[in-house]
Write a structure and sequence with these properties.
A hairpin with an 8-residue loop joins strand 15 and strand 16. With 765 residues, the protein is an alpha+beta fold. 27% of the residues are buried.
């Protein structure tokens, strides 16, 4: 209680602060706004978005902190006063004219949603001193329903086309004008995918007969094209557009608007089938076949908007190009004929090579360090937009309790890596049509990483062959990664004798001995977040599976290889791991208003060793605590299970094969780029089997729910749109590593044993 008293006193002081200091005589602070409806399927939060005046922002929906900050300023005009006013928010003074506009806006919105007889009124309560509460009352009335829906485009070709795709408008549904707008978008897209290049949604209109109360007979019609003549404009049916020719130009002068000028100055021409490819002087960088495979607008075919979008996105995805634009010129001999489209695709080559320098600071559970890296990239290695990336990185970290005298009591790392990305599916026996259809890349990579800690020195040699591709909608595509083969060879250069003698036998064997990990895996991810529409709710899903050692185990059986003294097969004298591992994570952010949102995440993972292994390698096991989960604990200091804290003699012990995570976070914007968050984290890790060096760390249905750790805290973030800097503080609420009443750390909050802080980049989920 004594620890909580200062917090309560601070809240009472804030609550007692005057929020009407800058409210003039005869004015009222807009304190509250409520929207009440007798019946409406529309959420109140959506209705409030149509109001023209809102009260001052509340932090976490409780305190008008920005208004308090503003009221701390004075009228003297000092720099501190100006700063406080920029950080804060001026009081919102009730404006009756805006209230009337809000009422009318709500009425129009309800009518658009099908409540044609809706009525809206408002009431103002000024009984509280210099504060006003505004209540909007909506009487929805009975909604108008669609009694019939007909399509009458007035053109036989369009009529047959419209019947190839079912309409989402159904008899009996509410007469919602927003859904009619979506129907216009659907029809427009259908037309533009089937040759109607010049078609747009303004040609579509609806006739609604509401002579019978609460019923609407709806008809969709399409206006004909109005063609200007020497006398009067005449109406004409919509014409089809056919791709007549396709020309691709590689040039750096993208500022020119006249495509004919660009093509006249081209110096080299290559024709592949019916597509003409021209290169400007010195721009012959990409092979013609690379450009042709990414052109889906082909002569002799009706114009298809999706083919145009695929052409643009495929070419724009080539790292060797920095600019892509599509231009069209219409030609026709007669207004009634099909229009011929001359398509010009203008591309500009990007600088092929570049260097980079990275500097970063690190914080791993309070151990501070730094790292730097130098990178080199070649975006067009073999004239096919192949991306060669090389990187050399060095890192240092001051470990707690390290041997400062030698300098090697800390953590050192040296890493070098190289990879090459091919912008196509390099798959043996795959057909040309398949490789052309897939938006895929192929990656080959290799790396060498040497790490030095007080306990050991080791080297990790890795290599892999991966495929990446996308499917689904172009705005929110699903991403797929197939690791065809991933090889890690862990070579222990040195292990401290005293350190090794303290390790359990299994830990020494699977974590501190030479080992091969040969695996394959697949990852599916989907993210609906759109940086251009940050005020929309979003969700993300990630699922992954990894299989290791199966091919080697089968090969060992087929060849009749003999097992070693420990009962396992070996590859070149080194034990290889065999396990399966699966993960799934789901996160969702819900936007409450322009300044507030709620985000939650739930995830889990399972790893099972079998066959040639009785334990998963350390580098593939889970850990808990850190900047992204269970933030009341420092990194790698939680779990597994209810293993007592005194048993956690090293981070080596605090790993597991099962993980469960759950998080919820309330985020609110403060001022400028600052954002505040309050969160609750839950979760833990467990071992799949009972290991002697991890007592009470195994997963048991009878007790796992009592071993789920809880923490809570506050975070301050700096959101620069393209990246976010995060500083989170966390307190333990329930600690399964303790015993008895001491598990409930929330009853004794302190900044010594139950506190952790984290510095990171990006949101935790």
């Amino acid at each position: 209680m004594p620890r909580i008293t200062p917090v309560l006193l601070a809240l009472l002081v804030l609550a007692s602060c005057s929020t009407t200091r800058y409210v003039g005589e005869g004015e009222y602070l807009l304190d509250r706004v409520r929207v009440e409806a007798d019946y409406s399927p529309i959420p109140t939060s959506e209705l409030k978005s149509y109001l023209h005046q809102h009260p001052n922002q509340k932090i976490f929906g409780l305190l008008k902190w920005p208004l308090y900050v503003y009221d701390w300023s004075s009228d003297r005009g000092r720099w501190s006063d100006r700063l406080l006013r920029r950080m804060g928010e001026a009081p919102v003074i009730m404006d009756t004219s805006l209230i009337v506009l809000s009422r009318d806006e709500l009425r129009r919105y309800m009518v658009n949603k099908g409540f044609v007889q809706a009525a809206v009124d408002y009431a103002i309560d000024t009984s509280r001193s210099r504060r006003a509460t505004v209540r909007y009352r909506i009487r929805s009335g009975a909604p108008y329903l669609i009694a019939s829906y007909r399509l009458e485009p007035g053109d036989d070709r369009m009529d047959s086309l419209l019947r190839t795709e079912p309409t989402p408008i159904r008899v009996g549904q509410r007469f919602d004008r927003d859904e009619l707008e979506q129907e216009r978008q659907r029809i427009t897209s259908l037309m533009r995918r089937n040759g109607y290049f010049a078609f747009h949604r303004d040609y579509i209109y609806f006739s609604a007969d509401s002579s019978v109360p609460e019923r609407v007979d709806l008809v969709m019609r399409i206006r004909p094209v109005r063609i200007a003549t020497d006398s009067l404009p005449i109406e004409h049916p919509h014409r089809l557009y056919c791709v007549d020719s396709v020309r691709i130009l590689v040039d750096s002068r993208t500022h020119l608007t006249d495509s004919s000028t660009l093509f006249r100055t081209a110096t080299d021409t290559v024709r592949i089938r019916d597509v003409e490819i021209r290169y400007a002087a010195g721009q012959h960088l990409l092979r013609p076949g690379v450009l042709y495979r990414r052109c889906f607008l082909l002569p002799g075919h009706l114009f298809n908007e999706r083919d145009a979008e695929r052409t643009y996105s495929s070419l724009a995805g080539l790292g060797a190009l920095r600019h892509v634009s599509l231009r069209y010129e219409e030609t026709t001999d007669n207004p009634s004929d099909t229009v011929r489209l001359q398509t010009t695709i203008i591309t500009a080559a990007a600088p092929p090579q570049g260097f980079g320098l990275e500097l970063e600071g690190t914080n791993s559970g309070g151990d501070l360090g730094f790292a730097s890296a130098v990178s080199y990239r070649h975006r067009n290695l073999l004239r096919g937009s192949e991306l060669l990336s090389t990187r050399v990185r060095g890192a240092y970290e001051a470990l707690s309790g390290g041997d400062r005298r030698s300098g090697w009591g800390n953590y050192w790392e040296f890493e070098t890596e190289a990879s090459i990305h091919f912008p196509t599916f390099l798959l043996p026996f795959a057909s040309y049509a398949f490789r052309r259809r897939m938006r895929a890349t192929t990656e080959f990579k290799i790396s060498y990483d040497q790490q030095r800690r007080p306990e050991y020195r080791r080297a990790i040699i890795s290599g892999g062959w991966n495929y990446n591709w996308q499917t689904g909608a172009s705005n929110h595509p699903a991403r797929h990664t197939l690791k065809l083969i991933d090889v890690d060879y862990i070579y222990m250069l040195h292990v401290d004798t005293a350190f090794r003698s303290r390790l359990p036998e299994l830990t020494a064997k699977y974590n501190y001995s030479d080992m091969f990990i040969v695996s394959s895996g697949y990852t599916y991810s989907l993210n609906s977040y759109d940086p251009m529409r940050r005020n929309r709710s979003a969700h993300s899903l990630r699922a992954a599976i990894e299989l290791a050692g199966n091919a080697l185990y089968g090969l060992s059986h087929l060849l009749g290889a003999s097992r070693g003294a420990d009962g396992s097969y070996k590859l070149f004298g080194t034990t290889y791991s065999q396990f399966v591992k699966a993960d799934i994570d789901y996160a969702r952010s819900i936007v409450l208003d322009a300044r507030n949102s709620v985000a939650f995440h739930i995830g889990g993972g399972l790893g099972v060793p079998y066959g040639n292994s009785t334990e998963i390698p350390f580098v593939r096991r889970y850990y808990a605590g850190g900047a992204n989960n269970n933030r009341g604990w420092s990194v790698r200091t939680l779990g597994p299970g209810s293993m007592a804290d005194e048993e956690s003699t090293s981070f080596i012990n605090q790993v597991g094969d099962i993980r469960l995570d759950a998080n919820i976070e309330y985020r609110t914007r403060l001022f400028w780029k600052f954002e505040l968050a309050a969160y609750i984290d839950a979760g833990n890790i467990w071992t799949i089997r009972r290991y002697g060096y991890q007592p009470d760390g195994d997963f048991r249905l009878s007790r796992f729910y009592r071993e789920i750790a809880l923490s809570y805290g506050l975070g301050l973030r700096l959101d620069f749109d393209y990246f976010l800097i995060r500083f989170d503080t966390g307190l333990k609420a329930y600690d399964p590593g303790q015993r008895g009443a001491r598990r409930w750390a929330i009853s004794r909050p302190n900044l010594t044993n139950n506190f952790a802080w984290h510095f990171a980049i990006g949101y935790p989920f």
